[in-house]
Structure formats: C-alpha cells, structure tokens
C-alpha cells in the first residue's frame, strides 16, 4: 500500500466512525458511510483491508500476435475490503481472507482465463475476490512490467463492489467456492 492509499484509508476510517457521508469515498465505496453487517450487499461498521502487493504471475494475455503464444509477467496489487475482520479478535485464519488461498486461486485464474485485455482480466480477478472470497469491495491493479522498453509498466486499475455484481452470480459462486477454498473466513460469504 503506498502513501496515498494510507491517507485514503485513514480518511475512510475517520468518516466511517463519524457516520458522515464522504464526498470523496475511497476504494469505490458509496458516499454513504458503511456500518456493521446488516446485509451482505451493504455492510455496516468498519471495513478492513487485506492486501497483496506485487504479486507476479505468468500468463498469456494481449492483442499482439507476439503476446498470444508465450506467457509474460503480470504484476497485481490487490486491496480486498471486508467488514471488520473477526481474526483481529480470534487470531484464527478461518476468520479472515487466507492469502495462500487467494494466491493459489490467482495462479489458477492466470492459467485458465482466456481473455486478451488487462481490463477483462482485472474484472475476472475482482469477480473472483468478491464471489469466492467474500470481499465487499476490491481494488485490482494489473500491470505488464515488460511491455515496452521505454516504459516501466502499463496497466489498469479498477474498483468493484459486491453491489456491482449480480446477486445470483456471487451467491452461486460463493457456494461452490466454499468447497474449493476450505480455509475461507467464517462470516465473509453471505448465506
């Protein structure tokens, strides 16, 4: 998380605690201050952030013919927002997002996604985190670090909320996701 994200997180926490609407809500969250778990679509209370920085995986992605046959590196930075994480009190991996399970799911997605654009891949990652890991909102930043010689990286950053996803899709995927990710935190997926 960079310095700007830390400042945004601080303003998010202060506004949420005050219960005040936020004109510049960070992370793609609505301007209404969230509060503690009334419904799966509109969480209430504090939102905690689980993050993964500089995940690098290999995948075939791109529109140029040179990119469609050889895997290339893709760098991801993820911020995963969930209602106050129970693991803060319980100290149990079952009560939070398991980084190892997310990492394994990302590697599997990179092997099988079948999309050509980073934008479409970012959307697939956001859906994975919301549908299978119970995130209420996510920020996904994807980059191709080696695309051009004169540019450090090119990429895209998106933010999505659970309310952006059709309810049937995330409930169905969440139910199948429980079997795939047994270490998923309790209470993070709606019933």
Cα separation of the termini:
31 Å
Oligomer: single chain
Helix content: 25-40%
With strands numbered from the N-terminus, the spatial order across the biggest sheet is 1-2-3-4
Total helical segments: 5
Let me know the number of strands.
4
The value of Rg in angstroms is: 17 Å
Structural class: alpha+beta
Principal-axes shape call: elongated
Overall mean pLDDT stands at 75
Query: Unreliable runs, pLDDT <50, ≥5 residues?
Result: 1-41, 170-187
Major sheet, described briefly?
A: 4 strands, antiparallel
The H-and-E topology, N to C, reads as HEEHHHEEH
Strand content: 15-25%
Can you summarize this structure?
By secondary structure, this protein is of the alpha+beta class. The protein has helices at 3-18, 87-90, 99-112, 118-133, 167-180; strands spanning 47-59, 72-83, 137-144, 154-161.
């Amino acid at each position: 998380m960079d310095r700007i994200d830390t400042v945004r997180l601080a303003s998010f926490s202060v506004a949420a605690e005050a219960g005040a609407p936020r004109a510049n809500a960070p992370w793609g969250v609505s301007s209404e201050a969230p509060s503690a778990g009334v419904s799966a679509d509109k969480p209430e209370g504090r939102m905690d952030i689980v993050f993964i920085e500089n995940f690098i995986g290999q995948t075939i992605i791109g529109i140029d013919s040179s990119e469609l046959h050889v895997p290339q590196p893709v760098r991801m930075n993820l911020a995963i927002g969930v209602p106050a994480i129970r693991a803060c009190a319980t100290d149990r991996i079952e009560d939070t997002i398991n980084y190892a399970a997310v990492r394994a799911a990302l590697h599997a997605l990179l092997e099988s996604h079948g999309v050509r654009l980073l934008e479409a891949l970012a959307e697939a990652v956001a859906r994975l985190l919301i549908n299978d890991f119970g995130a209420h909102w996510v920020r996904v930043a994807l980059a191709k670090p080696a695309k051009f010689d004169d540019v450090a990286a090119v990429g895209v950053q998106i933010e999505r909320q659970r309310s952006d996803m059709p309810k049937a899709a995330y409930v169905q995927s969440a139910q199948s996701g429980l079997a795939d990710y047994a270490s998923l935190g309790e209470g993070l997926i709606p019933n």
